[in-house]
UniProtKB/TrEMBL annotation, chain A:
One of its GO terms (molecular function) is electron transfer activity. The keyword DNA-binding does not apply. Keywords: Heme, Iron, Membrane, Metal-binding, Transmembrane, Transmembrane helix. InterPro entries: ActD, Cyt_c-like_dom, Cyt_c-like_dom_sf. This is Cytochrome c domain-containing protein. The chain crosses the membrane at residues 66-88, 108-132, 200-220. Gene3D superfamilies: Cytochrome c-like domain. The keyword Membrane applies. It comes from Gimesia algae. Residues 341-433 form the Cytochrome c domain.
From TrEMBL, chain B:
Coiled coil: none annotated. The keyword Membrane applies. The chain crosses the membrane at residues 26-44, 50-73, 93-114, 147-165, 191-214, 220-241, 262-281, 301-320, 332-352, 364-388. This is Quinol:cytochrome C oxidoreductase. Keywords: Membrane, Transmembrane, Transmembrane helix. Signal peptide: none annotated. It comes from the Bacteria.
Length: 455, 413
């Protein structure tokens, strides 16, 4: 056996004495013993019990934990992060006024601050507790002691750590014996790691291989190409046997999925020729049907666009469109009965759809407009006031057309507002215009009085 | 249920009478300040309004303490709590404070019934007729119904306080555990009655001072304020009684610790309720809702509001959280006194900003504070004297309660 001598220091590390273990069978004895160990001046030692013992902290002279300070620091950190984050997001990075509130204010920040403080406090408490207790710790050399196994059942232990400056094997052993334990034993560092059971190694390897497989598959699939369709785990009615727009098909000769109107037919709900004034604001349909849907496009160029880039045809085209529209046979009377109900409806709809830009009084001072002006948005065209001579002279049909198809920056609202409501808005608009034109002499006395006292 | 036949052998019966006549004399002496406040009210300009509001503030400050005690007694019975048995009798005594307070509140009700609108603008029929909103609320807010509800509220509270005290005292004589079971069964419905009467009383007497305003959380706000007041009062009483060698053995530092914990917890609860009420109103920004907070930010009231935010919540939250603060009787007593004062400021802040002279809301003035402090000490004297009177020769501890043993051995982990 000469070969064994060749690598002695690698195989056989000297086992180190790690400490002594004293066993008790009574919690009171443990507490009494703990008091004596505490008074003897040892600093690195511990007690092990199957259940929490009242008074063991005092008996061991354990200082109060610093965990509250960790929790407090984490909580304060959470609060600071929350306030800072909300300040940055709301007041600096994306300032956006919501219902007239200040960009940053303490009351609005309180719920988030509270939540984040609590969250980080909880993290601090949980992780701090684990850290202070040096957990998770799966193995302790004391576990090798046969007697120590009963620590989870009915035995109580004091362990003395050999790294304690007061520790000496003989004196400390004698001292422990003087505490009247059942017996005292020593525990040593491990010379070699205990072998894992074969079945556990096998099982863990298997789990490891299984864990690697999904990411490996994903990596493989991401780095290669394939002709087969991707795997669709939850179909969610994503695939339906129907024809859609913008696709091709072999069913029809022209290959289009979306079909053109069949000549000589009208789609359901689209027949409007029986009431042209109501649907178009025109007395009769003109020859050139395209004018029905045109809108006067922007005549103003954005400030940053160079004059050379501007298409010279644009202003001319806009002017031509204005001309075309001006010549159309607009209706000048409402094509539906004018009632109080219609006026109320018009007011309501106006306030919903129009007032944000045009303002409640129709002077072009809506909130959106004001804000755009304040931010000096280059592309913004301030909506025209209704109370100019030009707008006042426009026939109702023309106003209706403008709401339907838009003008300049204003988009057409035909899709959002049904024709009845568009007429109602026109009616309210007329009322607004009239309200700015009225002569004080035409008012009744009470009305003048009321206007005077209204602030 | 644990019963201990030899419990009554070990526990000496102590009563508040052992304190001698001094506390009663001091309490009655303090009550002299109530007429003083009244006279001051006669001297100062607008002093009658100041006195009326101060009187309401003082009575409802004391009432909040008694109602907190009543809640504590009932919730301890309902949850079959063992730890609190040694404190329960003292709480029952404090809850009996509703009886002197019912008498003290009576003048407010009678004056309102006579149509005096110093406190409640809805008591004036002319104001109600001119005011659309008050008119709409008049089926509820009218003097007759108000007086009827006063009877219901105080009747319920007096009944509950007397019921739980009498059953508990009866057990001292017989030691019958059936009485404990009976109180457990009754405390559930009793708490329901309590919840409704307290919420509506807070609405009637305090919230309707500004009858245009309403907050659905107001009842809970007053409840939270009351519990802070009660636990402060309880902690002060316990520390005082222990210093006079009463309850010194049974009530140890573990019980004080728990009272401190509850005081701290309900202080946080108060802050939570207060911010909940504020935040919604702040967010919605509806004129009829902000009318509560706006006057409380102007004319010196902003300082009071900030005092509440910082003094009632932030400072106790930081410094009163520590374990040793609750386990050290002197420190606990300091915080209890501090929070009782903060609770007083809280009720002051609820009531006093409603004073308006000729439609102009009043600023915080020295006269106002002077009258209010005198008035509170006066009413507080009567309140404490009433409690001492009702405590009389009754034992200071439920000496034959079946859970007494558990309470005596109580230990915080």
């Amino acid at each position: 056996m000469a070969t064994t001598i060749e690598q002695p220091e690698k195989i056989k590390a000297e086992p180190q004495l790690l400490g002594l273990l004293a066993e008790f069978d009574d919690p009171h004895a443990l507490i009494e013993a703990s008091k004596k160990v505490r008074d003897a001046g040892y600093s690195k030692w511990d007690t092990h019990t199957p259940f929490p013992l009242h008074g063991i902290d005092e008996a061991m002279g354990i200082k109060w934990t610093i965990l509250p300070w960790i929790v407090a620091c984490c909580g304060l950190m959470g609060g600071t992060i929350a306030v800072g984050m909300q300040y940055w997001m709301n007041a600096v990075d994306y300032p956006f006024i919501i219902s007239g509130k200040p960009l940053f204010s303490i009351p609005a920040s309180i719920p988030i601050t509270f939540e984040l403080s609590v969250l980080l406090s909880a993290f601090g408490a949980f992780l701090g507790m684990l850290g202070l207790n040096q957990l998770p710790k799966l193995y302790n050399p004391m576990f090798k002691s046969q007697a120590f196994r009963r620590v989870t059942n009915d035995r109580f232990f004091i362990s003395m750590d050999a790294t304690d400056p007061k520790f000496s094997e003989i004196d400390t052993g004698e001292f422990l014996k003087s505490l009247n334990p059942l017996h005292v034993e020593d525990f040593w560092s491990d010379v070699e790691s205990p072998k894992l059971p074969r079945s556990l190694v096998l099982g863990l390897s298997l789990v490891g291989v299984l864990l690697i497989m999904p990411p490996a598959l994903v990596a493989y699939k991401r780095s290669t190409t394939t002709n087969t369709p991707r795997i669709h785990i939850v179909p969610d009615m994503d695939f339906q046997p129907k024809l859609k727009t913008q696709n091709t098909t072999s069913i029809f000769a022209d290959g289009r999925e979306v079909r053109p109107h069949i000549e000589g037919t009208i789609p359901r709900g689209q027949y409007k020729d029986d009431n042209i004034p109501f649907y178009y604001g025109l007395k009769v349909l003109p020859e050139d049907q395209d004018v029905i849907t045109i809108a006067v496009q922007d005549e103003q160029k954005p400030a940053d666009e160079k004059a050379a880039d501007a298409k010279p045809a644009d202003p001319a085209a806009a002017a031509a469109e204005v001309d075309k529209l001006a010549k159309l046979p607009w209706v000048t009377e409402f094509p539906m009965p004018v009632t109080d109900k219609m006026m109320a409806r018009g007011k309501e709809r106006y306030r919903i759809y129009c007032s944000v830009c045009h303002g409640l009084g129709g002077e072009g001072d809506g909130l959106v407009s004001l804000r755009a002006m304040e931010l000096q948005q280059g592309t913004w065209v301030r909506p025209a006031s209704y109370h100019t001579e030009n707008v006042r002279k426009l026939p109702v049909g023309r106003l209706f057309h403008t709401i339907s198809n838009g003008v300049r920056k204003m988009p057409g609202y035909a899709a959002q507002i049904p024709p009845e409501d568009r007429w109602a808005i026109v009616l309210y608009l007329r009322a607004l215009q009239k309200s700015h034109q009225i002569d004080a002499k035409d008012l009744r006395k009470e009305e003048v009085e009321k206007l005077r006292t209204t602030k | 249920m644990q019963t201990s036949p030899d419990t009554d052998n070990k526990i000496p019966v102590q009563t508040l009478a052992e304190l001698g006549p001094l506390p009663m004399k001091v309490a009655l002496g303090c009550s002299v300040l109530l007429p003083v406040a009244f006279v001051l009210g006669m001297i100062f300009t607008n002093g009658w309004d100041l006195f009326a509001f101060s009187y309401l503030q003082s009575t409802f400050f004391c009432l909040s303490i008694s109602l907190g005690a009543l809640f504590f007694v009932m919730i301890q019975q309902l949850t079959r709590a063992g730890w609190s048995v040694v404190l329960r009798r003292l709480s029952e005594f404090i809850s009996m404070g509703v009886i002197p307070l019912s008498v003290l509140v009576l003048p407010i009700v009678i004056l309102t019934l006579m149509g005096n609108d110093t406190l409640y603008q809805w008591a004036n029929t002319k104001t109600v007729a001119d005011d659309h909103l008050l008119h709409a609320k008049s089926p509820y807010l009218n003097t007759g119904f108000f007086a009827l509800r006063y009877l219901i509220y105080f009747g319920s509270w007096i009944f509950l306080a007397r019921y739980f005290l009498n059953k508990s005292v009866a057990q001292d004589a017989t030691g019958d555990p059936e009485l404990t079971l009976l109180m457990e069964r009754r405390s559930g419905p009793a708490l329901l009655l309590y919840a409704f009467t307290l919420s509506f009383a807070a609405i009637d007497f305090l919230m309707s001072l500004d009858a245009h305003w309403f907050s659905t959380i107001f009842g809970i706000y007053y409840f939270a304020a009351g519990l802070v007041g009660f636990f402060s009062f309880l902690a002060i009483s316990l520390v005082y009684l222990r210093s006079k060698n009463l309850l010194k053995g049974p009530v140890n530092v573990e019980h004080l610790h728990d009272v401190g914990k509850l005081l701290f917890a309900f202080n946080c609860f108060w802050a939570y309720i207060a911010i909940s009420q504020y935040l919604l109103i702040w967010y919605a920004n509806i004129p009829e809702e902000t009318s509560f907070f706006l006057p409380r930010q102007e004319q010196g009231w902003g300082v009071v509001s900030l005092t509440l935010v910082i003094g009632h919540f932030a400072i106790p939250f930081v410094f009163f959280m520590s374990r040793w603060m609750k386990r050290n009787p002197a420190a606990l007593c300091f915080w209890a006194v501090y929070l009782l004062i903060m609770n007083w400021i809280d009720i002051f802040w609820l009531v006093m900003p409603n004073i308006a002279f000729d439609g102009v809301k009043s600023a915080v003035t020295f006269q106002m504070i002077l009258i209010n402090v005198c008035c509170t000490i006066g009413v507080g004297g009567i309140f404490v004297a009433g409690i001492l009177k009702f405590a009389g020769e009754k034992s200071l501890m439920p000496v034959r309660d079946p859970r007494l043993e558990e309470s005596l051995k109580f230990h915080n982990i």
